[in-house]
Design brief:
With 123 residues, this protein is an alpha/beta fold. 40% of the residues lie in helices and 29% in strands. The protein has a five-stranded mixed β-sheet, with helices on both faces. Strand 2, helix 1 and strand 3 form a beta-alpha-beta unit. The longest helix has 14 residues. Helix 2 packs across helix 4.
């Protein structure tokens, strides 16, 4: 799994691609909150349209949610749009959203359309 973090026009875009590796999501969070322009409450688009999660289990999805919640204070009351292209990853994204929703103050929405994700994120 590879990822790239960029700051664009008032929000961050994180691109995640390749085979899903649950333990690497911690690296994604660390890179995001260590970025020079990061501050709690900043919005983020997580583009996972090139991600392949065919081997990801429910327990691994729950694990990702558990260590995602560890970043609650550093993320603050931000908005996070998750963007997927395939039904499998979209469904796993919704599952992750359910696992993490009571663990932090981040507002999360899952999308298949980049335009809809950006409209929600910046609106």
């Amino acid at each position: 799994m590879e990822f790239n973090v960029q700051y664009r026009d008032g929000f961050f875009e994180v691109e995640i691609l390749g085979e899903t590796e649950p333990e690497k999501y911690r690296d994604v969070f660390e890179t995001l909150v260590a970025h020079g322009k990061w501050q709690p409450g900043t919005s983020c688009l997580v583009n996972q349209t090139e991600l392949n999660s065919k081997h990801l289990t429910t327990d691994e999805t729950r694990d990702i949610a558990e260590f995602s919640a560890e970043y609650s204070v550093k993320l603050g009351k931000s908005k996070c749009a998750l963007l997927f292209s395939r039904d499998l990853e979209y469904g796993l994204g919704r599952m992750w959203q359910t696992f993490v929703e009571n663990e932090w103050e981040v507002s999360v929405m899952v999308f298949k359309s980049r335009d809809e994700a950006l409209a929600w994120l910046t609106g």
